[in-house]
Amino acid sequence: MHSFLALFLLLLLLPWRSLAAESDDGFCSLPQSIMESSSRLLYWKVTNPTLSPSHLQDLPGFTRSVYKRDHAVITPESHVFSPLPDWINTLGAYLITPAMGAHFVMYLAKMKVKSKSAVPPHDVERFLFVVQGSAVLKTDSGISHQLPVDSYAYLPANYKHSLESDETATIIIFERRYASVENLYPEPVIGSTEKQPLLETPGEVFELRKLLPASAPYDFNVHIMDFQPGEYLNVKEVHYNQHGLLLLEGQGIYRLGDSWYPVQAGDAIWMAPFVPQWYAALGKTPSRYLLYKDVNRNPL
């Protein structure tokens, strides 16, 4: 079985390698300027993706995006931005919504100069993560928090706040209607990935950080998962939890159901309950993704 998997992955990689030999900007190759420079900002490829192999970039109608009953891969060339309702100077692209079958939304917010967020609908909680630029989180208490790249904030349902920016910034946002439990009340959380400890992952090789407390008041968590080139998930997961994923760095292969997808920084994935799922990190650089997961609630 392992030899078959290795052969399968090799066959998947062959087209990428041939493209890389023909062009410096092939799907799984990095431009020479990126390989030679250490000055690229964190998550730079999320907002400056390689849209497709060079020989397909001018092909009318080409996209790697796909939507199926139990999963979706939404790639940057198919993002559609429009003004976010009630936000100021901000464009948004909804990547995951209940129209797919999800019970949460995941969207990109592109904030411009002098931009400001709206509050979520009643009883809706919000998690935001900065992938480009910087923003300021303000609360009714008068406290302000500067949020640079790799910073995040969790705002409980009906918690009054605003996100403002005097420069361009790109934010990935998750929102869902809070699944309340009597006498459980989540608190706001503000932090950054680098300050979160690495957690044990028995039987796995990837590095894991959880951005929210694992305690019962929180009905979802957000994980940061890091893979070195060649590493992959040992467990082929099938579970009731839904996922929303944004690949922040690197590239690899994601199995969803019976399909295998090449993915790279900037790609978003929705995984419905019980869809078989598996990831392998491929290419020349480490990969990292941000993963939403609903937790701490009885599926009934």
TrEMBL record:
PANTHER family, alphabetized: (S)-UREIDOGLYCINE AMINOHYDROLASE (PTHR34571)
SUPFAM superfamilies to which the protein is assigned, alphabetical: RmlC-like cupins
Q: Which organism is it from?
A: Dioscorea cayennensis subsp. rotundata
Taxonomy, superkingdom: Eukaryota
Stored NCBIfam families: ura-cupin (TIGR03214)
Q: Known InterPro entries for this protein?
A: Cupin_2, RmlC-like_jellyroll, RmlC_Cupin_sf, UGHY, UGlyAH_cupin_C, UGlyAH_cupin_N
Supply the name of the protein: Probable (S)-ureidoglycine aminohydrolase
Which residues constitute the signal peptide according to the record? 1-20
- GO molecular-function terms, A-Z: ureidoglycine aminohydrolase activity
Annotated Cupin type-2 domain ranges read 224-290
Tell me the keywords, alphabetical order: Signal
